[in-house]
C-alpha cells in the first residue's frame, strides 16, 4: 500500500498549506484525491517534488500490508 503521510509531514515542516500549493499551480482536486489515498501519476509526484523541493520519499512511502497485518494478528506468548 502506498501512503502519502510523508507528504503531509513535509508540508507541515515547510509550512506549506494546501491553499499555498494551489497558488503554486497544484490542483486542489488532486490534493484532495491524495488525502483520500487514491492513486496518482508519477507526473503528479514529480510536480510535488518540484514545488516542495524534496525527494519522492518525502512525498510517499510503501507499507507492506501483509507485514502490518501479521504483526497485528500475532499473539504475544504468555509468561
Could you please describe the fold and organization of this structure?
The protein has 79 residues and is mostly helical. The chain has one domain (2-66): 434 Repressor (Amino-terminal Domain). It has helices spanning 5-13, 18-23, 28-35, 42-52, 65-73, and strands at 2-3, 61-62. The longest helix has 11 residues, at 42-52. The radius of gyration is 16 Å and the shape is globular. The N and C termini lie far apart (35 Å).
The CATH architecture name reads Orthogonal Bundle
- Computed over alpha carbons, the radius of gyration is 16 Å
Strand order of the largest sheet: 1-2
Please tally the helical runs, counting DSSP H or I stretches of 4 or more residues: 5
Provide the helix percentage. 40-55%
What share of residues are in beta strands? 5-15%
What is the highest CATH level, the class?
Mainly Alpha
Tell me the count of domains: 1
Number of strands: 2
CATH topology: 434 Repressor (Amino-terminal Domain)
Assign an overall shape. globular
The SSE order reads EHHHHEH
**Uncertain residue segments:** none
Tell me the quaternary state.
Answer: single chain
Mean pLDDT: 90
Instruction: Calculate the terminal CA-CA distance, rounded to whole Å.
Output: 35 Å
**Main β sheet profile:** 2 strands, antiparallel
